[in-house]
Amino acid sequence: MPELQLALDQVTQEFRVGRRSVRAVDHVSLTIAPGQVICLVGESGSGKTTTGKIAAGLLKPTAGSVRFGGQDIWQLDHDAFRRFRRAVQIIHQDPYASLNPVHTVYDTLAAPLQHHGLTRGQAATLRRVHELLTLVDLTPPENFLWKYPHQLSGGQRQRVAIARALTVQPQFIVADEATSMVDVSIRVSLLNTLRRLRDDLGVGFLFITHDLAIAKYFGWEGSIAVMYLGRVVEIGPTPALINTPQHPYTRALLAAIPEPDPDLTRSKQKLQLRSLDIPSLLNIPPGCSFHPRCPLFEAGLCDTIVPELTPLDGRRVACHIVAREHANGHALPPAAAGTGGESTALSPSSGLNPSG
Hints:
By secondary structure, this protein is an alpha/beta fold. Helix content is 33%, strand content 20%. The protein has helices at 48-55, 78-87, 95-98, 105-115, 122-135, 154-166, 184-201, 212-218, 238-243, 248-255, 262-267, 320-327, 341-344; strands spanning 6-17, 20-32, 37-41, 63-68, 71-72, 88-91, 172-176, 204-209, 223-228, 231-237, 310-312, 315-317. Strands 6-7-8-3-9-10-12-11 form an 8-stranded mixed beta sheet, sandwiched between helices.
């Protein structure tokens, strides 16, 4: 159903820092259909959260457009923009900060229901709040209705935040590091709750995370977009990107995932970066922004020309060297082989990385 797609078209976001301008997001394009999952992955400072806020309509991009139903959301009239804001909800990273400390769970969930006229009367609102709490596995609901955020655990707070996002029956949810603030022991449970919402309700997700293992687990049937210093450097179906990564940065992220098997850890081929230092957004390198760290670096090419996202084996990759080698029918050089055979062959059943 193309008319329901949420699309970012060449969005760019700049911020002023003193007299200088910082480009946090640089010409990013993404399209999410109902029920689809796109995981946005990258290190801290790569522009993931800013991209998520742009998609949710919380930030107006400096350039480019956000389209919903084929229309630029910043050109919509008041009523149409209000419908968009109901259709696209966001789950913030920190449930400690995103919930009002003086509101009970009931107050938090009842307010949007009553404000948007989704329920009529106290009894109907109470029934709907019960349904929402059951939907996010806060059962029995009576045990949580009148509690304040400080009386809940981190995982329970995040489930309340998820329930709040569901109050207005959204078509898309931007989940910004939705599991990073909770204990590892309940992370899988939260991810399973979100997956069930996707499957049962047909909700589309822009799932933001710094952990490729979590992206693999949650978005195995969807796609992953890898960001570096504000740009998408590789995007494609999750199984292909995880098992056969192409961009050197994607390979570096996968190589950083710990292996539970010590024998695999010892035999795992190491990816040697030219530098471990991440450039500052105030001084982004010319050409490919990854070139100061890239093992495939070629002077006069990588440090002068910005690579475009090029179609390659069912995904798109922004790397001069990878695109050239593929066009010539050659495999990547052994030094860039990344994590190596078995260690990249991840599947939804292979568990989660406990780090991060």
